[in-house]
Design goal:
This protein is α/β, with parallel strands linked by helices. It is built from eight helices and seven strands. Strands 5-4-3-6-7 form a five-stranded parallel beta sheet, with helices on one face. It has a two-stranded parallel sheet with strand order 1-2. Helix 3 packs parallel to helix 7 and helix 4 packs parallel to helix 5. The radius of gyration is 18 Å and the shape is globular. It starts with a strand and ends in a 7-residue tail after the last helix. The model has no long low-confidence stretch (mean pLDDT 90).
């Protein structure tokens, strides 16, 4: 029996069409960073396939890495670009839940999977700013963006050249607890050995 794993909203219509034509089932999976939301998604996946696996060690490792990172860099402020893998809004919520100071988020198109995080962020971080990086007002007045010491993703970093920008591109899809551990590793490496936007954008699809 064939099953399609739909990892991005860009593929959902294709999966729906294949199901309609050939009755090939599919499950929609998301690029979550929160360990708790990741665990819930694994539960859905296990239920779909009728299988189980003990992932407690992976979850504990992800939690420990996030906690250690938040403690080490509690003096820094952060921002999240639209170009990151997965939802920039959900990534920002995960960092905020860890106690980190997130100044702003770039999200050019609000997708259905963003709405739950947006609703929670209205309560958790009512002062958090969310911008469209392609909006003329942002491009005309970049100095009005809040300053962030570290920016995940490169498109927001273009407007804040004094910040440390860390490439974590949507060109590579992450899944499960590996999404969070890969993000933390990338941020740690980026902070320890900063690279210019030009160096990181070389060979990338990204245009700003």
């Amino acid at each position: 029996t064939s099953v399609n794993l739909c990892m991005t909203y860009l593929a959902q219509r294709a999966c729906e069409d294949i199901f309609k034509r050939f009755e090939t089932p599919f499950i929609r999976l998301y690029n979550y960073y929160s360990p708790d939301r990741t665990e819930q998604q694994y539960e859905q996946l296990f239920e779909f396939f009728g299988a189980r696996a003990d992932l407690s060690e992976m979850k504990e490792k992800a939690y420990d890495m996030l906690s250690d990172f938040a403690e080490e860099y509690s003096n820094l402020s952060f921002a999240v670009s639209d170009s990151v893998a997965g939802s920039s809004v959900e990534m920002a919520e995960t960092l905020i839940d860890a106690g980190l100071d997130v100044k702003f988020v770039f999200r050019n198109v609000i997708l259905p999977e963003d709405r739950a995080s947006l609703k929670r962020l209205c309560e958790k971080a009512p002062d958090l700013k969310i911008f469209s990086g392609v909006h003329p007002s942002v491009r005309a007045n970049p100095e009005k963006l809040p300053h962030a010491d570290v920016i995940a993703g490169l498109d927001a970093g273009y407007f804040e050249p004094s910040s440390v920008s860390v490439n974590f591109s949507s060109e590579q899809t992450h899944f499960g607890y590996e999404a969070l551990t890969s993000l933390i590793t990338a941020l740690e490496q980026g902070i320890a050995s900063p690279k210019t936007l030009k160096e990181q954008m070389s060979g990338s699809y990204l245009t700003v």
